[in-house]
Design brief:
Layout (H helix, E strand, L loop, with lengths): L19 E5 L3 H12 L3 E6 L5 H9 L3 E4 L4 H4 L4 E4 L8 H9 L2 E4 H6 L5 E6 L4 H14 L4 E5 L5 H7 L4 E5 L2 H4 L9 E4 L14 H9 L10 E5 L3 H8 L6 E5 L8 E5 L2 E4 L6 E4 L8 H16 L4 H10 L8 E6 L2 E5 L6 H9 L5 E5 L12 H7 E7 L4 H7 L5 E5 L2 H11 L5 E4 L12 H13 L2
Parallel strand pairs: 1-2, 1-4, 2-3, 4-5, 6-8, 6-9, 7-8, 9-10, 10-11, 11-12, 16-20, 17-18, 17-20, 18-19
Antiparallel strand pairs: 12-13, 13-14, 15-16
Length: about 450
């Protein structure tokens, strides 16, 4: 087992239970937080304004935790000493406004769970690439023999793992929604991959508000910690110039050589974050495409900071398999390739997907449009896309954006119909790419549901 170097980890003293703790939202995050709170001696009440899945209802019942669904009992919620909020609940929700008016502490699951572990925290955020980077970093650390957990926006709830496991490290994928209610939690290693417009409806349509949310990942860091960021990302560079970050700064770039971090030397990835440098040929990386070089750089720097051996990093980067629903190769039928990128819920993600494709793409777009600006896709669409298949209830903005760039734009209303239409539009050598650039909630339960229906439809061709 490899022993990482010592990263200072100044945690707050563990806080004991006190009074009623309410958890809003009974998904993976909320149910895990409820379990941890119960373990720590709190009186726990879970409230979900929507329906709770049978899986989580069974868990809450088995744990003896009170819960309600399809309503919020305000009298009970507003009597809480503290409230843990699901990241999916917006600040404009009526119950959140009332909680704030009453001055009750409102925190995220990450904030709550962080109180009850002294594990080292490797926290990864960004508009795009965070799930891949988090998974790759975890893969490297696991291969190095470290006792490490994977949580946040991925896998089992962080709080549930804190309650049931004894990990020395956590690799956490952290969204801006989680960061918004994070106050005293500290990342030992913070990674900010990029900042591009996303979820602006949650930030008063102001980019500076969204940027401020992302930079919360660096709050509470000390000079003994690390902040890893992309030197090629304009919003990140602008944000750093406007802030004082206490942590040691490490950068990565594919455009220039950096003093301390990661960069390209022709076809080699170089990491010079520590005294022992790392070098690897780009063509050996399991993850290909420009965006994945950035993801690999961020994971590589993190691994070097933790003193993981070069061979372990190299082997892990060679044999890593990408996550489900992120540029996932589904199969080939009649010489036509099918790729599931359902996790691309914003325009920038779809840009990255198209950037990694060769020509002759049948692109499946559409869903809940979050105020998308499709202009950044236009050049790639002109170069690489033969036809667009829309999969959503309202496709007008997609038609308006691309009607001059492709010959065929077809509307469909299900994954099955979209796959069948795309298959008939494609010829041998083409690629059918599901990369919607939109949220999934008009036709599907989640992006996972959308991706799974896409894959099932391919099986039925």
């Amino acid at each position: 087992m490899e022993t990482p170097n010592n990263i200072a980890n100044q945690k707050l003293p563990l806080q004991g239970a006190g009074g009623l703790l309410v958890v809003l939202g009974a998904g993976e995050s909320g149910t895990g937080a409820a379990y941890l709170a119960k373990q720590q001696g709190y009186d726990v009440f879970v409230s979900d304004f929507g329906a709770i899945s049978d899986k989580y209802k069974t868990q809450l019942s088995n744990w003896g935790i009170r819960f309600e669904e399809k309503q919020h009992t305000e009298a009970e919620i507003l009597s809480a000493s503290e409230i843990v909020k699901s990241p999916g609940i917006p600040d404009k929700a009526p119950i959140i406004k009332k909680i704030k008016e009453k001055g009750i502490a409102l925190i995220s699951e990450i904030e709550f769970a962080g109180r009850y572990t002294d594990a080292k925290m490797i926290c990864i955020t960004g508009s795009n690439g965070k799930t891949t980077t988090t998974s790759l970093t975890y893969h490297i650390l696991k291969n190095a023999g470290l006792n490490v957990g994977l949580a946040g926006n991925i896998g089992k709830s962080f709080a549930y793992q804190v309650a049931t496991e004894q990990f020395d490290y956590y690799v956490l994928e952290i969204s801006s929604f989680m960061l918004d209610n994070m106050y005293k939690f500290k990342a030992d290693i913070a990674v900010l991959l990029n900042i591009t417009p996303d979820h602006l409806d949650r930030y008063d349509y102001k980019m500076e508000n969204y940027t401020a949310s992302k930079f919360r990942i660096a709050q509470n860091q000390t000079a003994a910690d690390y902040f890893i960021y992309c030197a090629d990302d304009p919003e990140t560079i602008k944000g750093i110039a406007e802030r004082e970050i206490e942590a040691q700064l490490l950068t990565f770039s594919i455009e220039k050589k950096v003093e301390r971090g990661a960069y390209l030397d022709q076809q080699d990835l170089i990491i010079n974050a520590t005294l022992e440098h790392f070098k690897m040929s780009l063509n050996k990386l399991a993850l290909q495409g420009k965006h994945n070089i950035y993801n690999s750089m961020a994971s590589g720097i993190t691994s070097k900071v933790l003193d993981i051996r070069n061979k372990t990093i190299r082997d892990s980067m060679e044999d890593f398999q990408n996550i489900e629903h992120r540029l996932e190769f589904v199969g080939k039928i009649s010489g036509i390739s099918f790729i599931n990128d359902s996790k691309a819920t914003n325009v920038n993600s779809t840009w990255y997907a198209l950037e990694s494709m060769s020509n002759n793409v049948i692109l499946i777009l559409g869903g809940v449009d979050k105020g998308n600006d499709y202009n950044m896709l236009k050049e790639l669409v002109k170069q690489k896309v033969k036809s667009i298949v829309c999969m959503g209830k309202d496709n007008n903005r997609i038609h308006d954006a691309f009607e001059d760039d492709v010959d065929v734009i077809v509307n469909t209303s299900s994954a099955s119909e979209a796959v069948q239409v795309a298959y008939h539009l494609a010829t041998k050598g083409d690629t059918v790419l599901l990369s919607p650039a939109c949220a999934s909630f008009d036709l599907f339960e989640s992006y996972e549901d959308r991706g799974n229906q896409f894959k099932q439809a391919i099986k039925e061709l």
